[in-house]
C-alpha cells in the first residue's frame, strides 16, 4: 500500500499529542481525575508520573529485601513462566519448518515462591529463563500476601474511569526476559517497584507499521529431568495474529528486517521511555508496546500494573476501520473477485476477520481472551 | 468507492455509542463534570438534558414576552440575516449558471432590535426571510443587555473542559429559516429557550455520506428600495467545501437526490432529535447537523448556544485520515499518475487539500474561520 495518507496520519497524531518535542509528558504529582480524563485518557495519550506518587507504598522499601519477599510468600505457589530464550508470547522458528515462524508460549510451572526467585535470579539466555508473570489478576490471587504493600487501586484513575481495576498483575524478572510488541484492550497503569523497565511505544494509528500477521500457536514444555525444552505446535492448529516487528534485531538480521518491514523502519521514530523504580507509566489502551528490563543490584526487576476497562467508543471503531484498510485496499486495487471472500492464505484478510470477530465479541471478552487479543 | 468497510464503520460507531436502541441519551439532571467527560465528551457522543437544568434561568419566563425583549434591547443594533429562501450558508442555483450550485451567504443588515423582531415574525419564504444570528459570540456582544437572563457558561462543561465558552451565540428565527448540513470545530451546548429546534445528526465517521464538494461562494444583497434580492458570486472567486446533501428534498427532487447521494440514502438512518423549550442538546464536535425550527405561539424560536474549544487529538487525526481516503483510493485504484499532484478539477483532491490546510492551521484558527470551516 502506498503509505502517503498513513504517513500523514502517523505524523499528525504525533504533532497533535506531543507537539514538536515528541516527548512524553512527565508529571511530578498525580493528576486530578478530571485532568487525567481530559488530557490523557480521552486523548489516548501516555504520561510518566514521578516516584513521589508511590513514596507511601511499603513495597518501595520492603520489596528490596528478597528475604522479606520469600518469607511473606514462603507458602505461595506462583505461576513461573519458563523459556530457553526469555521470549514468551513471542515469535520463534517453527519447530516443523525452521524457515517459518510460530507464536511460542512459555512452559508455565506452578512453583513455590522461594524457588521461583532463585530461578529468576539465575536465569540465563540459552539455558533456562524464568519470569514470574501471569496476566490473570495474579497480584490479588497468587501474591495476595503482598497486597498490603501497594495501593489496591490508583485512586485518581478509579474515580476518572468510574470503577476499580479489572486486573492487577505482578511481574518479577531479570534482563533475560523481554515482551515482544503487542497491545492490550485495557487502560494500563504500570508501576515499576524495583529495577527499571524500558518501553518502546507506538500509537494505535501506527498499526500497519507492526505487520500483524497470523502465526501458528506453539507451546514450550520443560522437563525437570533432562533440563531441556521442547517446542510443539498446538493440536488442533490455532493461528495467533501477532506483530512481526522486533525493535532490536541482531546485527546480522538488521538488514533483512529493514527490507521486510519498511513502514516500521522508515516511519517516525517510536517513543522510547524508561520507567524507573517508583515511577508509573500511563500506557493508553491499544498502544503497541515492547518491554525490556534492567534488574536492581540483586538481579530482580519487580513491577505491578493495573488494568482498567477501556471504553469501546468511536476511537475503537476508527482503529478497527484503519486496521481493516490494508486488506480492503488490496481487494479494491489488486483483486478482481469480491471482497466478501476471505482467503485463509491471505494474512490481511485474516487480520480483518480477527478485528471484526474481536469487535463483535468485545462485550463478552473474558480476561484471558482480552490479555491475549491482538 | 466500494463502501463495505465504511458501512462497517458507520454501523460500529452506532452500535458502540448507542447499542441496539440507536436512541440518543436523555438526562433528567445535569451530569457531573467527570460523567460528562467520561461518557460523552471523550466518546464524542451526544445527549439531551431535560428542561429542569434551565428552570432557574430568568430567560425561560422573561423571553416569552416580546415586549420585554424589545424594551431591554430597544437601543441595540443587531446583525439580521436576510435571504429570499430562509437558507443562508446554503447551496443555491448559481446565478451565472442555473444548472450548477453556489454557496450563498445572507445579506447581513445591522438592524434596531425591535425592527428585527418584526421582520422575523413576518418572514415568508419567497419574500424576505429574516434570521437574527451571528456566530461571533454575539450574545455577549450585540445582546449584552440580556446577559443576566441565562447562565454565562454551563458550569459542569466549563469544569470538565477546563475553561469557559469561547463563544456564546443567540438565534432568533421562525419556521422559514433552516440551517443546512455542516459541522463545527467546537463542543456545542445548545439550549432552546422558546419554540423547538429539530436536529438531524450524523457522526463524523459518516463524512463520505455528506458528499462534501467545493462550491463557489456567493452573497445575497438586499435593496430596501426595490425590496428585491440580488445574488452575486464573490470576486475574486473563492470555493467553499460544503455538504451536498439535503435531508428534506422536495418530492420532485427526491429521486434525483437519492441517485446522486446513494451513501446518504442507503446508509444507516440519521439521528433525528427535537429540542424543546428549556432543553439542552450536547452536540459533539465534528458531528454533522441540519437544523429546522418550530416557533412558539407568537412566531419565534429563540436559542442560545455555547461553543467550547474542542481537543484536536487522535480522534481529529482519525477523522482527517478518513476524509482523505476517497481521493486517495481513487488515486490508488484509478489513477496511474503520482498522488502528489492535485487536480483542481477533482473535488476529492480539493477536499483533501482543505482538510490538511485546516489541520495545519487549526491552532491559529480565528473564530470567524472556525465558524465557517468545513
Shape of chain A: globular
Mean pLDDT of chain A: 88
Number of helices of chain A: 11
Unreliable residue stretches of chain A: 327-374
Helix residue percentage of chain A: 25-40%
Describe this structure in words.
- The structure is a homodimer of 374-residue chains.
- In chain A, 45% of the residues are buried.
- The model of chain A is unreliable at 327-374 (pLDDT under 50).
- Chain A has helices spanning 4-18, 33-41, 59-62, 66-72, 113-121, 155-161, 251-260, 262-266, 314-334, 347-361, 367-372; strands spanning 25-27, 47-49, 77-83, 87-88, 90-94, 97-105, 107-112, 129-133, 167-173, 178-182, 186-194, 196-202, 212-223, 228-233, 239-243, 271-275, 280-283, 288-294, 301-309.
- Chain A has a 9-stranded mixed beta sheet with strand order 1-2-17-11-19-9-8-3-7. A 5-stranded mixed beta sheet of chain A has the order 4-10-18-12-16, with no helix packed on it. In chain A, strands 5, 6, 13, 14 and 15 form a 5-stranded mixed beta sheet that branches.
- The first copy, chain A, is α+β, with helices and mostly antiparallel strands.
- Chain A has 11 helices and 19 strands.
- In chain A, helix 2 packs across helix 6 (155-161) and helix 9 runs antiparallel to helix 10.
- Chains A and B meet through helix 1, helix 2, helix 6 and helix 9 of A and helix 1, helix 2, helix 6 and helix 9 of B.
